[in-house]
Design goal:
With 482 residues, the protein is an alpha+beta fold. It has 14 helices and 24 strands.
């Protein structure tokens, strides 16, 4: 659980944008293909995809391979079998209808225009057959139609079914806000128990309703009655308001007093929430499943040191951090993006131990700290003071047996040293670098360097770290003569 929350805490703005883009893309697929067989098949593919990843997680090699093949096959099947539905969606003239519009339902025409037109034809006893598709595609059922693509209006509907119009005997098909086709031939019903008063229009309407979920409106030229056929049933409509209500129910929405469509808002909101949760889950599984580890040596930065104190030394200069995250993100990390900071604001003179934890390490968003080694650093702090100390030559080795070192002196004899008070407290002499006695054969002078130990000690700038040694060497024989 802690890993989950740490993962959420490290979410980048790119991750949020990624989730929103994919969620909106899937939401648009739902909006465009909802209540169709296309969406059902896509949902099935999504379920198989989840099942495939579960199989891969469990190590089921053959099952994973089989699921991959089935998913690829079904993706091709969608394109072949549902090409008409896909074509209808992609043929939208307004790109907004695809990207952000919600007017994709099969029925968009004004219910009032259609109902008033049908009863106007009934009053004149002019026969009519009007088809309003729903989810099912009619291209394979209704044939012989003439492309019309006229905007729906009462005048347009009356003119199509006027007896002098050559296409008045066929059916008019409404798609979207337009009358898409006229003169279409519908399949006749094969039912044998229909009333004898039903003519060809009634049988055609009933036949189409038996094969699809379309709503068909019939106007009888013999009786002047308006009837509707749907789901293999046919019934009489008494007035315009009743027909208008039927049209509203067919559209899948209801209308309140303000004319706002209800029912769809909840369904769309629920679908959007489910898709957002689903994509977030996929993102989380990917961010963990594609986890990559990397180890980096990062220098330690010491901060907030007391100005009166000096950092004399530390047990560590760098720490090794082990990081994890998405492969592409981990590969793009540079060492300078990782900061290890140790806060010295509460440090005291002497040796201080600090633990290196998640709080001390700054990481780029989306990167998780898995391990840090070592986890403790010792820091030595002290108040700097100045102390003047004598200089001592660090002789090593021995002179030749016939020689003796009579005297030696250094210039200068003392040097001012700056360092921590606790260190200088125990230092009484500063030594030069080592001088080999074996290399001395006669009196002379040479320049040597001071050795400041520990390294935190510093000679004042006014003091020369180059020391001049003057030494006098004599033969043991001459000393005996004296």
């Amino acid at each position: 659980m802690s890993t989950f929350f740490s993962q959420l805490a490290s979410v980048r703005w790119q991750d949020i944008l990624d989730i929103l883009v994919v969620s909106y893309f899937l939401f648009r697929l739902y909006v465009l293909f909802r209540d169709t067989y296309v969406l059902r098949v896509i949902s099935g593919i999504g379920f198989l995809w989840v099942f495939q990843h579960m199989a891969a997680y469990l190590g089921l090699i053959v099952t994973t391979w089989a699921m991959q093949g089935i998913i690829a096959f079904l993706a091709i099947i969608i394109i072949i079998v549902f090409r008409n539905e896909i074509r209808n969606v992609l043929q939208a003239k307004d790109i907004g209808a695809i990207l952000w519009g919600f007017s994709h339902k099969a029925f968009f025409a004004s219910e009032e225009i259609i109902s008033s037109s049908m009863f106007a034809l009934a009053q004149k006893k002019i026969g009519a057959l009007l088809v309003l598709p729903a989810k099912d595609d009619l291209h394979e059922v209704a044939q012989g139609g003439i492309s019309w693509q006229g905007v729906i209006s009462k005048e347009m509907i009356l003119s199509i079914f006027w007896p002098d119009n050559p296409a008045h005997d066929g059916a008019a098909i409404i798609r979207g806000e337009r009358i898409a086709e006229v003169g279409a031939i519908l399949p006749l019903s094969r039912s044998t128990n229909l009333p004898s008063s039903y003519g060809t229009r009634h049988r055609a309407a009933l036949g189409l309703s038996e094969k699809t979920d379309a709503l068909i409106i019939i106007v009888s030229e013999e009786t002047g009655h308006v009837m509707v056929a749907k789901n293999g049933e046919i019934k009489k409509v008494n007035d315009r308001l009743e027909l208008q209500k039927i049209l509203q129910e067919h559209s899948g929405v209801s209308i309140d007093d303000q004319g706002v469509r209800q029912g769809e808002v909840f369904k769309l909101g629920f679908a959007a929430a489910v898709l957002l949760i689903f994509v977030t889950g996929i993102w989380y599984s990917f961010s963990r499943g594609l986890e990559t580890l990397v180890s980096l040596d990062v220098p330690i930065v010491y901060q907030n040191r007391d100005s009166e104190m000096e950092l004399l030394g530390s047990s560590l200069n760098t720490v090794n951090v082990q990081l994890s995250g998405a492969g592409a993100l981990i590969r793009s990390i540079k060492p300078e993006q990782i900061k290890v900071r140790v806060n010295l604001d509460k440090a005291v003179a002497g040796i201080n131990s600090f633990s290196i934890t998640q709080e001390n390490i700054s990481l780029p968003p989306g990167v998780i700290l898995k391990k840090v080694e070592p986890q403790v650093v010792d820091v030595s702090l002290d108040i700097p003071i100045k102390k003047k100390l004598p200089i001592q030559i660090d002789w090593i080795g021995r002179l030749a047996d016939h020689l003796i070192l009579e005297s030696a002196s250094v210039d200068p004899e003392r040097v001012s040293v700056v360092g921590g008070s606790k260190i200088l407290e125990h230092i009484s002499t500063i030594y030069t670098e080592k001088v080999q006695l074996e290399n001395i054969t006669k009196s002379g002078r040479r320049s040597v360097k001071l050795v400041l130990n520990p390294a935190s000690l510093k000679a004042r700038r006014s003091s020369n770290r180059q020391i001049t040694i003057t030494y006098v060497v004599k033969s043991r024989g001459k000393m005996a003569e004296k």
